[in-house]
Input
Amino acid sequence: MATRQSGILGELTMNILLIAPASGPWQRIERHRTFNGKTFRFSMLSLLTVAALSPKDAKVTIVDEQVEDIPDDDFDLVGITAMTALAPRAYELCAHFRSRGVPVVMGGFHATLNPDEALRHADAIVTGPATGAWERVCDDVRHGRLQRRYEGDPNAPYPKTLPRHLLESSRYQSVNATLATMGCRNRCHFCSINAFHGGNRFTRPIVDVVEEVRGFSKGLFVFVDDNLTQDRDYALDLFRALAPLKRRWVIQASIEIAEDTELLAALADGGCAGLFVGLETFNSEALSEQDKAFNRPERYRDAIRTLHGHGMFVEAGMIVGFDADGRNVFHDTLQMLDWAGIDVIQLAVLTPLPRTPLFESMKDRIVDTNWEHYDYRHAVFTPKHMTAGELQGGADWLIRKFYAPSRVLKRLYRWLTMPGGLRMFVYPLALNLAYYGRVRRFQIRGRDPGATVRPGRLQTLDLVNSR
Ligand code: B12
Ligand code: SF4
Output
């Protein structure tokens, strides 16, 4: 193997390349520089963690294909991370490096949930977390005995510090991301988290999280945890420990938090500027269908008001295309989003990701098996009450309407007139502008398939009428 001699003692060193692939319009998206001449990205925790576990004497290069080209140097080992939507591009990169005799190891969501498929392309895979596995991979490569499969150890400690300097780039403006917990005990049918973590939860020592955050440069940072508040006592302690740092941060949490006065106060005092909440839909039948009936659409509006009252913006994850959704879902959802006062949305077309209960229940209806289209932007199955084309067109229409300049302005005006809103205005402003820019850049248009069949609305509109 190609490890090289270095230093006066002639010890072995390794030259490791870690890649976050990008495909389609996302590749080299840096030509659309957005901030201070740089591309705005979260720090890539997946590859930073792998880098942290690499041998101390290794030279590690991290490449994010959204902003950089793949280098052509002489590497001893290539590691590639891939979500499902990026698997095809990851496989191209596997072929590229293997044809040059460089061992390639894949890890992350897709390799973990589709190990046999990934093994047809990579020399080896790591399933689950990198901790407890990547160290062995490096050692085995060094000694020319790379195995096919490695399983990470979820109980192995998460690195206390990450080599964040590896992300420094003239093209890359990194928004610090970190995590305190991993996994979620819920089993919403469309979500990959449970399949990946096997329903287990992992929490980091709070002191490690606080210490890491203390080292972040000023400015907003992000917790990427799937459901940070699921362990209530842990979350309370964490928020209280963060308060003295006087930093601003955002989290992903369940909307139920708005009804927990004590936790909410700790969240606000701790510095939370906003939340990403998986509301998913205003259609309670769809929520029951997906085992997410703990979300209560009739309470969304009050919950959002409460969160706003605590000075936090709300970004909602919304999904269209459930079996309980009719053609009116796009129009109805738009109305309900206005009604509930949501600041920002991330809209997804329902996507049957591998190994989720949704995928199992939909196998017969999948019409597109190109993983690249499993990016929440494409309709890859035949919905129950519309065609795949209508679902696609309706989703595009909804996102364009939600980010239409008149709606964006109305939402921003609301922040300006809210008590204390001026202080927070910058966050909803930045997010709305970013999504508006994306709608324009990708020329998202679409058409509301329900426009001609307005009678027979979903039950959701009853919520508006009942107020
Ligand atoms: C942050 C994030 C993003 C960021 C990525 C930013 C970045 N620069 O990293 C952004 C916002 C860009 C993003 C986009 C998308 N995301 Co996303 N994202 C996440 C999120 C919330 C956190 C990822 C993270 O940092 N985790 C923390 C690290 C430490 O854990 P990890 O990634 O699992 O990595 C560990 C192991 O997997 C393993 N590992 C990972 N890679 C590798 C590689 C090697 C070589 C090895 C050895 C090990 C290894 O070791 C790591 C350390 O233990 C996850 C959910 C989650 N909690 O993981 C969703 C998640 C990964 N995203 C998902 C999806 C679907 C998407 C999108 C396709 C759609 C969308 N949500 O808009 C787009 C893709 C856009 C595109 N075409 O590129 C899904 C993936 C499901 C799947 N089966 O593929 C997830 C799981 C969300 C979910 N609930 O379903 N995402
Ligand atoms: S959607 Fe959210 S609550 Fe449901 S399983 Fe996934 S992470 Fe947990």
Observations:
- The pocket of cobalamin (ligand 1) is lined by residues 22, 26, 41-42, 44-46, 49-50, 79-81, 83-85, 105, 107-110, 113, 126, 129-131, 134, 179, 191-193, 224, 226, 353, 375-376 (CB under 6 Å).
- The chain has 18 helices and 18 strands.
- Confidence is low (pLDDT under 50) at residues 5-10.
